[in-house]
Amino acid sequence: MTEPALRAVQLAKSFGHTRVLDRLDLEVDAGTIYGLLGPNGAGKTTAVKILATLLRPDAGHAFVLGNDVVRRAAQVRSLIGLTGQYAAVDDLISARENLYLIGRLVGQRRTAARARATELLEAFGLGDAAGIAVKEYSGGMRRRLDLAISLVGRPAVLFLDEPTTGLDLVSRNEVWDMIRDLAADGTTVLLTTQYLEEADRLAGRIMVIDRGMTVAEGTARELKGRAGGEVLEVQPLRSDDMSAAVRALSGLTGAGQPAVDGEMLTLHVPDEDLVSAAARKLDTAGIGVRHLAVRLPSLDEAFLAITGHRAAADESGLVAAPAAAVPAGAGQ
Amino acid sequence: MIAAQTGVLARRNLLHIRSDPQQLIAMTVQPLMFLLLFVYVFGGAISGSTRGYLQFVLPGLLVQGIGFGTTMTAVGLNADFQHGLIDRFRSLPMARTSVIAGRVLADLVRTGWSTFIITAVAAGLGFRFHGGVAGAVGAVVLVLALGVGMCWLMAFLGVALRSAESVQAAGFMLIMPLTFASSVLVPAASMPGWLQAFVRVNPISIFAGAMRGLMLGGPVATPVLQSAAWILGLCVVFGSLTVLLYRRRA
User: Fold this and answer.
1) In the predicted structure, residue A328 carries a pLDDT above the cut 80
2) For residues A157-175, average pLDDT
3) Under an 8 Å CB criterion, which residues of A touch B?
4) In the listed set A174, A205, A224, which residue is the last one of a domain according to the structure?
């Protein structure tokens, strides 16, 4: 059996009285994209920070390509790249200078650092703005630069902590394409996200975590199955037709129970064939439809379906925890 | 390795001046403003003539300039923490201390520039060295050494305090009373007794005394030795505290 690219064994970490990681196990195969999915405060960033040698675990062990992150931190650092939640780039120098700086810091010679900077600027579509101070950049450009910076040392393992949070759809899709290209080139990627859709689109395997514990683990398909499949949204043309629509869709074999929220009816459809079946049922009942869409369940819905309860570590959960006991940055 | 990394990081810190002109103002206009205001507003009242006061005050003003100038170390280091840059640096296979050393080196260049510009303008206004070449060289060495010592103190503040505001406030609250309640601007003799006692032990007075000795001619041995001891103490105490805290801070 080959050593996985990333391995965590019974990883635990607390800040004050708040337990952030509770005996977390993790295994990521080399050359794959692995999604760590969970709400705010679930412990995703803490797990990444421990794997990236920025934090020491209270208990347990973690390995990057077989190197213990505590005892062989220097070796680990030469193998990894890290892109944080916020784009950690130097605003007051240009993109080229940012890349050159990191190249020199990881030990590249002047000419090598310059060449690598040029290469990455081209690859990430930043060539035209390469000389401008980063403070003038858009959010998408900053994130691309952030990603490029984490690749300067050609890491074998890349940590992406919520790489698309706060990005518009176009920028998000660009970042997704770049992540896929990296994995295709053999880089192992550990991605944290709050969006099931993002994990679904990118990751081969996904772990759902909450309060520092594993809630579910598997391929995207397995998890979607456990989360009750995709969600069909129906909005009748006339709001009077809502109860008729509920009746029409109630008897659909294999689908969940229809739920009504305002003017929208939602229905879990574990099997894609059920979508056209549902459309036929509505048509037969003579119900006109204004909006008909299939989407992935939200993280909330998936949690509810998998665990039977709502995610604990959401915004309200953080407020409930004693805020003073959490050092600044602990929740990130 | 550490030297190369320190150099690259120092260069990066200095490149900031290009896109943040406020930094250039802080290291050029502000110290000059102090010089001109003190000399022309207080000079006549304190020394009877602005020319005479310029001779008295310039050596101390250079010390004060180091105090205010090095607050940049605290602010810059703190900003690097806030923006997540320190996390990025720490995830790289590089020497951790070079981040702080790069900061100190860059700020030494900044304070060196401020010192040069104040001295040049003061010379234009009529300041004359009476300490000879050795005195002038000694003054330059002392100012730079003091810059290193103060940088370490400020680096400590930058790492120890969380918000940019508290770093600014702490730097100001430290430097303002220390430089004003000293023999930099006024001879201590005119102050009440309790304040004189403080002014005499205030290291800023000691630095100012050493600078006067070197630049104007006068007793140098004792104040220079005392200054050297203080600077060494600043470097050792705050150097090790800063590195310790920097390694610990998550």
Assistant:
1) no
2) 89
3) 49, 52-55, 74, 77-78, 80-82, 84, 86-93, 97, 101-102, 104-107, 133, 135, 149, 153, 327-330
4) A224
Residue of A nearest to B15 (CA): A93
A75 shares its domain with A32: yes
Q: Are residues A218 and A235 in the same domain?
A: no
Across the interface, of A77, A89, A101, the residue whose CB is closest to B8 is: A101
Mutation site, A49, A78, A90, interface B, largest B CB count within 10 A = A90
Instruction: Based on the fold, state whether residues A30 and A169 are members of the same structural domain.
Output: yes
- Same domain as A260, residue A139: no
Q: Could you give the ipTM of this predicted complex?
A: 0.88
| CATH code at position A279 | 3.30.70.920
Using a CB-CB cut-off of 8 Å, the residues of chain B touching A45 are: none
Chain segment B66-85, per-residue pLDDT in tens: 999 999 999 999 999 988 89
Asked if B15 contacts B102 with a C-beta cutoff of 8 angstroms, the reply is: no
Which chain B residues contact residue A129 at CB under 8 A? Answer: none
Hey, are the CB atoms on A88 and B15 less than 8 Å from each other? Answer: no
Give the C-alpha separation, A18 to A107, whole Å: 39
Looking at the fold, whether A84 and A167 belong to one and the same domain comes out as: yes
Question: Strands A205-210 and A33-37: what pairing?
Answer: parallel
Domain ranges, residue B79: 2-248
pLDDT score of A32: 94
**Of the candidates B4, B19, B87, which has its C-beta nearest A54's C-beta?**
B87
Determine, yes or no, domain membership for A301: no
Q: Looking at the structure, tell me whether residues A100 and A152 fall in a common domain.
A: yes
pLDDT classification of A325: cutoffs 50, 70, 90: very low
Residue A326 pLDDT level (bands cut at 50, 70, 90): very low
A262 inside domain: yes
Taking CB atoms and an 8 Å cut-off, how many pairs form between chains A and B? 79
User: What pTM was computed for the model?
Assistant: 0.83
Task: Verify whether the Cβ–Cβ distance B250 to A90 is below 8 Å.
Answer: no
User: pLDDT digit string (tens) for A213-255?
Assistant: 998 899 887 887 777 778 889 999 888 888 888 888 887 877 7
CB contact under 8 A, A77 and B92: yes
How many domains does chain A divide into?
2
B94 with A105: Cβ contact below 8 A = yes
Domain range for A277 is 229-296
Domain contains A317: no
User: What element of type H or E holds A171?
Assistant: helix A169-184
Interchain contact, B1 vs A90, CB within 8 Å: no
Question: Nearest CB to A88: which of B12, B88, B162?
Answer: B88
**Is residue A144 situated within a structural domain?**
yes
- Given a contact cutoff of 8 angstroms between Cβ atoms, the answer to whether B154 and B171 are in contact is yes
Pair (A80, A53) in one structural domain: yes
Domain co-membership, A126 together with A250? no
